[in-house]
Each structure stands twice: as structure tokens, then as C-alpha cells.
């Protein structure tokens, strides 16, 4: 079904719609960027240092590790510096799409000072400059995207880097297959309809604990693309506290991400929670997560988040790409 234009050119000045449609090609581009990049040594643990959109690929990688029961100690550090336990048996991966994220630059500087093994994933900026100066293995990925829209690039680069280092031995074939199997266009109308239902409300996204990274990313897409508040939580924990808050729940719209592979008791929790919230007058959409391979399931689901948040931005008369308040905040931090 064709999607009717709502004056896309006037509102979508950065052509985010094309970014979404072109997304499946990112995995190959990210893998190619890391083709010959390797860090010498053997590592007990991998630490990813990143913020915002540059940390999200690590969250999805963590879902993949757990789905395939790969016993790799893997830690995501969203802060200044590096974790206290990091030592010379750890690989420190500093990821910043822009290359100018101050927390990640801080992590690089501390790791370099301690002479730890470091790799960098970035599109340029100060981080690339420091990596070149220190002789640190550098994966330069294509620039020009908002970080939150570059998850395929960054995940492809990360997984190829870890394969090159002998830390993981597979996963790239599944990643490359997504270029053929993901079809963003087929989800566009569904996303547009969901945006219309959400308009004027605050979306709250729920999932099982094992897929809470997806709920987090949905929340971030609404924050950055639609420029609205949004929140997330996960089952079963939310049934022990957050649901009590729906005693007064005016203005919320709940989106529940439901995977047939979730624990049967969590599936029952999802059904009962949706029923209780609807009785309270809270609109609820249950989004079925479809597919067999975990990477397909994750990214097919997130493409719907892209469309919903994109069309909600347009419904609200907003350009989905810029994040002016974040840029203004960074200026004030200087």
C-alpha cells in the first residue's frame, strides 16, 4: 500500500525516510569498514565504552550473545573513564559515531594512560585523531547519519572486529543475510498508523527482560525522532511496582513488545497486564516480534520503531533528524 505524502520534503529536511529505507545495507558497510582491523592479544572480557546511539549496537550484540548462549564476558560502560576492573586482559572498544563524545574520549584517554588494549569505532572526529596518534586499531565507518540511525553500521563493525580478534567465531553470515531479508517498506504503513494512535500521548514501551534493549531503543526513537517524553520497563519486574502507577495514568499509551520465545509466564503477564490497563482506559498496542533469527527479530522490530517515531514527528510538525536540545546542552558543557 502506498503511503500518502504529508509534505515530507518540507518537514523531513534530512530525508530520514531514505535513511530508514536504506538501512539494510548498513551491515555490509560496517563489516567492510572493519575488514582488516585487529587487536593483537587474548582477552578475558570485552568492554564497550559508548553513549547514546553509539552504545545501542552493543545492547543488540548482547541480545545475540545470550540468544546463542555464547559465554563471552561483555560489559557496556555508559560513563566517563573505564570500569575499575578493566586491566590488560580486557579489550576496550571505544565507540562514538561522531567521534566527539566527551565521555568516550575520557574512556579512551584513561585506557591509553593505563596502556590497555584498545580499539576504536567511529566516523571521525577527535576520537579518530587520538586513535591515529596513539597507533590504536581504528575502524572508520561512513559518516553522515544521526548516531541512532547507524545501528547497522556500528554493529557490523563491532562484530567483524571481534571476529578478527578471535573473540567470536560466527554471526557475520546472519548479519549479512539481513540485507536480503529486512524490508523496511513493508512496515511503513503499520508505523504510520501506530503514530496516529500515539499522537497526543506519552508512549511507554514494555518488553520481557531478555529484550529490554529493544524497549529502550523504541523509547529513544520517540525521544529523538518525535521529540516527546517516552519511557520503558520490562517484565516481570514492572508487575511488582510500576503497574500500581496506573491508578492515575492519563495521557499514556502503552506499547508491549511480545516475542513467542519469551518465558510462558511472561507471556501470561503480558496478556493480563494489557487487559488490566485497558480496563483503566489506557490505550495498549501489542507488537508481535516476528521471525526466527534473533538479529532479524530485533531489527525488523526496530524498523517499526523508526517508522512510528518518524511519522509521529511529522504528525507533530517536527523534523525528525535534528536533536537541537542535545547540541545546545553540549555547547553549554564546553
Q: Could you explain the architecture of this structure?
A:
It contains 13 helices and nine strands. The longest helix is centred in the last third of the chain and has 22 residues, at about 295-315. The chain is about 45% helix and about 15% strand. It folds into two domains: about 15-180, Rossmann fold; about 185-315, Rossmann fold. The chain has a five-stranded parallel beta sheet, sandwiched between helices. With about 325 residues, the protein is α/β, with parallel strands linked by helices.
Sheet of most strands: 5 strands, parallel
Provide the low-confidence segments as ranges.
none
Pattern of helices and strands = HHHEHEEHEHEHHHEHEEHEHH
Compute the number of helices: 13
Keywords:
2 domains, single chain, Rossmann fold, 13 helices, four-stranded parallel beta sheet, 46% helix, 334 residues, alpha/beta, globular, five-stranded parallel beta sheet
What's the arrangement of secondary structure elements?
Blueprint lengths: L7 H4 L4 H7 L3 H8 L11 E5 L6 H12 L6 E4 L12 E7 L5 H12 L3 E6 L2 H10 L3 E3 L10 H14 L7 H10 L3 H14 L3 E7 L3 H15 L4 E5 L16 E7 L5 H16 L4 E5 L5 H22 L8 H10 L1
Parallel strand pairs: 1-2, 1-3, 3-4, 4-5, 6-7, 6-8, 8-9
Amino acid at each position: 500500500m502506498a503511503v500518502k505524502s504529508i509534505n515530507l520534503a518540507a518537514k523531513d529536511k534530512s530525508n530520514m525516510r531514505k535513511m530508514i529505507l536504506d538501512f539494510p545495507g548498513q551491515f555490509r558497510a560496517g563489516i567492510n569498514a572493519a575488514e582488516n582491523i585487529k587487536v593483537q592479544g587474548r582477552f578475558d572480557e570485552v568492554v564497550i565504552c559508548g553513549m547514546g546511539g553509539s552504545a545501542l549496537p552493543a545492547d543488540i550484540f548482547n541480545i545475540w550473545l545470550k540468544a546463542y548462549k555464547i559465554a563471552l564476558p561483555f560489559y557496556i560502560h555508559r560513563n566517563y573513564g573505564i570500569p575499575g576492573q578493566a586491566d590488560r586482559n580486557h579489550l576496550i572498544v571505544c565507540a562514538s559515531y561522531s567521534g566527539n563524545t566527551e565521555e568516550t574520549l575520557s574512556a579512551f584517554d584513561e585506557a591509553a594512560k593505563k596502556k590497555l588494549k584498545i580499539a576504536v569505532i567511529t566516523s571521525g572526529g577527535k576520537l579518530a585523531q587520538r586513535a591515529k596518534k596513539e597507533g590504536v586499531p581504528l575502524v572508520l565507518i561512513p559518516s553522515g547519519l544521526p548516531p541512532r540511525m547507524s545501528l547497522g553500521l556500528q554493529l557490523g563493525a563491532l562484530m567483524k572486529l571481534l571476529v578478527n580478534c578471535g573473540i567470536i567465531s560466527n554471526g557475520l553470515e546472519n548479519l549479512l543475510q539481513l540485507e536480503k531479508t529486512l524490508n523496511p517498506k513493508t512496515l511503513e504503513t503499520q508505523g504510520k498508523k501506530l503514530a496516529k494512535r500515539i499522537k497526543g500521548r506519552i508512549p511507554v514501551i514494555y518488553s520481557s527482560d531478555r529484550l529490554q534493549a529493544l524497549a529502550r531503543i523504541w523509547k529513544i526513537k520517540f525521544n529523538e525522532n518525535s521529540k516527546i517524553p517516552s519511557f520503558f520497563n520490562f517484565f516481570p519486574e514492572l508487575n511488582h511496582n510500576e503497574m500500581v502507577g496506573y491508578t492515575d495514568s492519563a495521557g499514556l499509551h502503552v506499547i508491549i513488545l511480545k516475542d513467542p520465545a519469551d518465558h510462558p509466564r511472561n507471556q501470561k503477564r503480558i496478556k493480563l497486564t494489557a487487559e488490566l490497563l485497558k480496563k483503566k482506559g489506557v490505550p495498549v498496542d501489542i507488537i508481535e516480534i516476528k521471525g526466527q533469527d534473533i538479529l532479524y527479530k530485533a531489527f525488523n522490530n526496530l524498523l517499526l520503531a523508526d517508522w512510528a517515531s518518524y511519522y509521529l514527528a511529522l504528525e507533530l510538525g517536527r523534523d525528525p533528524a535534528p536533536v537541537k536540545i542535545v547540541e545546545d546542552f553540549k555547547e553549554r558543557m564546553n
